[in-house]
Amino acid sequence: MTASLVDLNHPGHYLHWSFILISVANLIVIAVMVALFIAAISLPFLRVRAVPAKRDETPARTRGGGDVPDQPRTWTGGVRRLGLRFLPPQKLLPDAQPVYVASWAYVFGVATLGALVIVIASGITLSVEGPAWWHISDVGHFVNSIHLWSVELFMGFMTVHLWAKFWMAAWRGRRQATWITGVLCFLVAIFEAFSGYISQTNFDSQWIAFEAKDAFNAGGIGAFINPMNFGQAIMLHIALVPAAVLLLVGVHVLLVRIHGVVPPIDARPEDLRGENVPLEGEMSR
């Protein structure tokens, strides 16, 4: 009897009394919830040990408005202190930039972000309306074209941005993680573009998926990703891979804010005014 209660493949057991019909599983869940509710309102809460506040921190306030000298160590407070340590407001939202940023070499990063916003907006519209809409409707054709050309611009701007930062040795000044996240974003974006190609639901997408199947099987990943499965391809394109791209872009931008925009190799000391983190050993030239 006990084993049958937890066997999900076994027919359910029900209790019937007058007009009440309830399964044993639901009755157990209700009983557990009632027990948790009673325990929550009757048991005393765990006490948190208070520690003295640091001098540079604003003391916590009581509900009555008075200041208290001690405050508990909470994980939210720890996250706030860590965020302010590495990313204070003047770094997160700066109102001044170094003079060397006034160059076309520094434009393609923000141009990539602008194209990404259009890609996401047009892609959401296409995913909501569906393939029949973007193949038949005139508005669907227009939005599909916007999505296509914004993707072209996104990949083009990101490629030029990657080239420019490579020749500028953008990993200088403790910026290795910034460079690595940018390269990873470029590689993931390539797979995102591929999943978009095979999600077009036309002859081109069928041909690309059919040819890619052999490559995936030869690479040993055909058991996990089937390019000929439209449902899998479209979900990779609109859910999983975009989430990875947005995560990498977000981390990349935050790292740029933390470590600052990389200066040119031959930058002069006066050019570094307004830079977040001056580079050590680079101005000896």
Largest sheet: 2 strands, antiparallel
Mean pLDDT: 83
Order of helices and strands: HEEHEEHHHHHHHH
Number of helices, where a helix is a run of at least 4 consecutive DSSP H or I residues = 10
Strand line-up of the largest beta sheet: 1-2
Class by SSE composition = mainly alpha
In terms of quaternary structure, what is this?
A: single chain
- Beta percentage is under 5%
Rg over C-alpha atoms, rounded to the nearest angstrom: 28 Å
What is the number of beta strands? 4
Gap between N and C termini, in Å? 82 Å
- Helical residue percent? 55-70%
- Which overall shape is indicated by the principal axes computed on the Cα atoms? flat
Give the low-pLDDT segments: 59-69, 277-285
Produce the secondary structure layout.
Blueprint lengths: L1 H4 L8 E4 L2 E4 H19 L7 E3 L17 E3 L2 H12 L2 H4 L14 H23 L1 H6 L1 H30 L8 H22 L5 H16 L11 H30 L26
Antiparallel strand pairs: 1-2, 3-4
Helix pairs in contact: 5-7, 7-8, 8-10
Keywords summarizing the entry:
10 helices; two-stranded antiparallel sheet; single chain; 285 residues; flat
Provide a short characterization of the protein structure.
By secondary structure, the protein is mainly α.
Description of the structure:
16% of the residues are buried. Helix 7 (138-167) runs antiparallel to helix 8 (176-197). Among the domains are: 104-168; 185-263, no CATH class. It is flat, with a radius of gyration of 28 Å. With 285 residues, the protein is mainly alpha-helical. The chain is built from ten helices and four strands. The chain has a two-stranded antiparallel ribbon with strand order 1-2. A two-stranded antiparallel ribbon has the order 3-4.
